[in-house]
Amino acid sequence: MHKISKIAVLTSGGDAPGMNPCIRAVVRTALYNGLEVVGVRQGYKGLIDNDMYDMQSRSVSNILNLGGTILKTARCLPFKEDEGMALAYKNLKEHGVDAMVVIGGDGTFTGALRFSRKYPDIAVIGVPGTIDNDLCGSTYTLGFDTATNTVIEAIDKIRDTADAHDRLFFIEVMGRDSGAIALRAGISCGAEAILLPEKQTALEDLIKNLKDGKSNKKSSSIVIVAEGDKNGGVYDVAKAVQKEISDYDIKVTILGHLQRGGSPSSFDRILGSRLGFAAVNALIAGETQKMVGLQANHILLTSLEEALNQHEFKLEADLLQMVDVLSI
Ligand code: F6P
Fold first, then answer.
1. Which of 146, 242, 294, 326 could form a disulfide bond with 17, CB atoms 3.0-4.6 angstroms apart?
2. pLDDT of residue 310
3. Phi/psi at 120 (nearest 5 deg)?
4. The predicted structure's pLDDT at residue 2
5. Mind listing the pLDDT tens digit for each residue in 266-312?
6. Is the predicted pLDDT of residue 90 greater than 70, yes or no?
7. What is the mean pLDDT of the chain?
8. d(Cα 127, Cα 101) in Å, to the nearest integer?
């Protein structure tokens, strides 16, 4: 078994609350086990730019409560190219790195898998860190819980004003390919309808649903639209509905990047700590090309390939079914 001595840790793609607790756990678990750690700034970009620094226990003091990522993050196109990967490999070797923990979502894992297949002498473990909750092999990804709570807080406030004015609100939430936040937030806030990328809702059905609600004495209504919904975007949906229900005062709110910020919830602090701890232990045990994830409250390993298998990923069927039932 290939024994490791120096771990590089990075965060890549969209930041997610809980990344900092995870970085802290990676650094301290590695040091506790006599390993060295380098932090890479701005994800794969930092690997290519050789932007890395030695981390000690105090490098991660007082960060459990911080949103964002102290290592910073980026979406890095050059890492998709062979030249970019070769440069990253050269820089890692110069630093004496023989293992990596990459914290991010599907784009991060795709890059990690390609890199690791090309340069297998650097072991790689992935930690699912994305508010989108769209990786196989982990019931929850880091940041999803905090982001959903942030969305709920915002929608509760919108409900107050929607109700005061008898208005219909269309609220766009994040999730280019994932309706996870939309679905959970929608159930939590009693949304009248939820439009998701995974399940197409016909506009006629939405309009009928909203008309039924009105004739059923609903004063306000909230429709949550995930960013990746296939009906053409939140403004187009609102326009189409306004054409058919002219007596409803309609407003649109896009929650945007506020969903990614904020202090991580208790759940995300603990999940980040567990996953960071497990990632280092997996590397010490000789694992590579795997993701650490939460399954039935156990931390288990899944191959990166499997983690990326979006076709296997499904939103909870009971949540999908109850949207229409609980909003009558
Ligand atoms: O992947 C996380 C995420 O927040 C998605 O929900 C969203 O579609 C995307 O990132 C936005 O990315 P950016 O911050 O680069 O615009």
1. 146
2. 73
3. -70, -10
4. 66
5. 999 999 999 999 999 999 999 999 999 999 999 999 999 999 987 66
6. yes
7. 96
8. 7
Question: Which listed CATH number (3.40.50.300, 3.30.750.24, 3.40.50.720, 3.40.50.450) goes with 6-143+264-311?
Answer: 3.40.50.450
Place of tokens 């306000």: 220
Render 193-236 in DSSP notation, one character per residue.
EEEBTTB---HHHHHHHHHHHHHTT---EEEEEETT-TTS-HHH
Q: Is the CB of 27 under 6 A from ligand 1?
A: no
- Give me the torsion for CA of 172, 175, 179, 182, rounded to 10°: -40
- Structure confidence by residue, pLDDT tens digits, 224-261: 999 999 999 999 999 999 999 988 999 999 999 999 99
pLDDT given for residue 314 in this prediction: 79
**Mutation to probe ligand 1, out of 109, 176, 259 (largest number of atoms < 8 A from CB):** 176
Tens of pLDDT, residues 77-89: 999 999 999 999 9
Taking the C-alpha atoms of residue 249 and residue 256, their distance in angstroms, rounded to an integer, is 23
CB 51 within 8 A of CB 42: yes
Distance 143 CA to ligand 1 centre (A): 12
Evaluate if residue 103 carries a pLDDT over 60.
yes
Using an 8 Å Cβ cutoff, are 110 and 134 in contact?
A: no
CATH class of 144-260: alpha beta
Q: Which two tokens stand for residue 132?
A: 């989108």
Whether the CB of 132 sits within 6 Å of ligand 1: yes
Going from the Cα of 7 to the center of ligand 1, the distance in angstroms, rounded, reads: 27
Signed CA dihedral, 260, 264, 266, 268: sign only: positive
State how far the Cα of 107 lies from the Cα of 49, in Å rounded to an integer.
Answer: 19
User: Rounded to whole angstroms, how far apart are CA atoms 160 and 20?
Assistant: 34
Alpha helices, DSSP H only, in the chain? 19-32, 44-49, 82-94, 106-118, 144-165, 180-189, 203-215, 234-244, 266-284, 304-307, 317-326
Average pLDDT over residues 216-227: 94
